[in-house]
Amino acid sequence: MTAEETAEETAEETAQVSAQGRAVGTPSPRVDGRAKVTGSAAYAYDRPVDDPVYAHPLQATIARGRVIAIDTVAAAGVDGVLAVVTHRDAARLADTEDAELSVLQSDAVAFRGQFIGVVLGETPEIARYAAGLVRVEYEEEPHDTELRADRTDLYRPERVNEGFATDTDEGDVDAAMEAAAVTVDQIYTTPMEHNNPMEPHTTVAVWDPGGGFLGDARLSLFDSTQSVHAVRSTLARVFGLRPDQVRVMSPYVGGGFGSKGMPHAHNVLAVLGARAVPGRPVKLALTRHQMFSLAGHRTPTIQRVRLGADEGGRLTAVAHEAVEHTSRIKEYAEQTAAGTRMMYAAPNRRTAHRLAALDVPVPSWMRAPGEAPGFFGLEVAMDELAVACGLDPVELRVRNEPEVDPESGRPWSGRHLVRCLREGAVRFGWEGRPAVPGTRREGRELVGLGVASSTYPYYRIPGSRAVVAYDGRGRYTVRIGAADIGTGAWTVLTQIAADALGCPLGAVSVEIGDSDLPRATVAGGSSGTASWGSTIVAACRAFRHAYGEDPPRGAEAGGEMPRDPDAKRFSMHSFGAQFAEVRVDADTGEIRVPRMLGVFSVGRVINPRTARSQFIGGMTMGLSMALHERSVLDHRTGHVINHDFAEYHIATSADVMDVDAVWLDEEDVHAGPLGARGIGEIGIVGAPAAIANAVHNATGIRVRDLPITPDLLLH
Amino acid sequence: MDARITLRVDGRDRSLTVDTRTTLLDALRDHLSVTSPKKGCDHGQCGSCTVLLDGRRVVSCLTFAVAHDGADVTTAEGLVQEGEPHPVQRAFLEEDGFQCGFCTPGQICSAVGMLEEVKAGHPSRVTDDLTGPVTLDDEEIRERLSGNLCRCGAYVNIVAALREEADS
Q: What pTM value is reported for the model?
């Protein structure tokens, strides 16, 4: 291939889906909408299976130590119990490198709630009753679950999540802070939080042992996952199978928000159970309680943010140092301060991450890992700086707008934060904001407005493949093992395929959620539309290239995710401005949020209907994070004591009034063939800070610890 | 202990034998393969399992099946009449009142039951006049649907869907 051909191919690969497309940009109703509102959409547990077995897990009731005796005799003797599997008799795993997935392989207990066995019964009632009859004796060791910034055992992880550098240090932050006319130096904390998708993590596993003329063993699963291919490859490795011996299906997924982004211990436990009753489907649905120990969580953070500025509010120093926890058996290091590296112009900048490895469940991804907690610290600090400088918080941010990415020095592919802030200020009525905090009272209520910036990186993950097939009668099928966890991906991918093929929306069916489909990357990092969408564009172009406009019956062509040459030349991020109004009851401290508005810049929006839902859904979760959510670890027992919806509060209808989102009409010409940068997570980023800043504006009380509860406002 | 019961589910009489420990939700899901009511918490805290039991909305995870021999149960699937979605289901589609869809059948059953309660004049915590007819404004809708959690955060659109219904 000549250089010219390569250049041509690159240009063709990266050419954007043009505006002449008919489906992209329109608010198409969800292709899965009718199935969802009528209840016919079958989630993992709902799939009909013959002769099911029900699994009820056994969990450790200590936070650290060993199981020295486990008496399963009474449980095994219950009529209808098929097996009780513990570390004594569980199948040995082929790969135990991932300690989270090394289930029932030893007597060690590394956190409270860890699996120590599973009971398999003919009915859920039998399995659960029998589980209660198992007697366990432990040798308990002292445990430690308390995150503090003054711990002497904090360590520096090699990298943090998404491969970011652990620390950065540019210029001389200490000297700049010393010399600055105005400074902010505060500690901000965010609590342990749990994803809590409405659908509990569920696996239905069937083990077909094969052997003899039956051929190889086969493992099939209905699983609630954000990535069928990640579950397949991981379980294949753990159980010593080839990937083609494993099939994972999940057409409908009841939310995930990161917790279903990678397999967890329950997947392995279900398969261990299935191996004990070969040929029968084993149904394992975690209870809501169990999810608090076994399905990941957001690490608590302690963040020190230092800002130095001149009298005009121009930043001279930005430092963001975060302390987090991880589990002792598996490291997860979140990138709390990574977003700060590119956010504002300042010659002197420092970020750092330190971890405490504790006897806690394994933390993992939760919607906008890094940015969601990190931008609480940074954006509340920016509000404090605005107050210290006597500047409007919108104006302060405008003055610190960097021309190029301060960290990499690269030009922006499209940074429109200032437009978002200005547009939002007009739409929200920002000029009516009380200039002096705590001065607007209406009846019993103190009223205030707050703002915060938002950002999220553009992630496009290579590794997906799509296949397009034609049935000879006007219908195209596009196959890709993607996941729609509520994002609207199914609909959006259909729109993209229709435009890329140049055919009506109704002529395209997209098949997703099955590992027998061409491999696809995870529904995570707001990367789905850009990654799978560009893959589908490539497949559709290959199809038209091979068959033209009049393909024969059975015509089929595939494509891989095209390269992304601009990703290395530009700094690519989405941005947004979050506005909130709060009303605080002066007598009770009750906080209400009558209005929130987000203005976002995300490149091209493929479907305004599902996009708006994603934005306001993220903002609603941000409201929930601001006012309600906190997992309470009892350090005496290592137990999350508020492990249900009665005590772990998430926002409900009565908490959520007017939440609206708008976006700039644009496309990012550097963001692949779609010009879209991803929208699933940016809605939560900055929302808690906007509410905290509005609370300050309403009351004059600065809250630096989430969640903001009424007691904090009763002084 | 087992018991033989009959339930009328979505217009069909269904006889089944249940363990007396079996909840109505598990009877529907595990025994009758009626899976539109979902199990989100099994503690009556999330509302995903809401069905209409003899016309009233209940969380089916908090009641035993054996206590409802002869009862009439309507799930979201049963709200579809002759292939046509119920007006509330159509309003959810119109306003994009859901994302992952897991809480949706419960939200819809809850909303249908709620509209009947309003019609019957039942007051809620936010109703000013406890004796007169109820005006179904946004505050009333939000209050009355707060037993149904949605982690995707579709509340604004759900309220819009029901505002449409209240106006019609």
A: 0.97
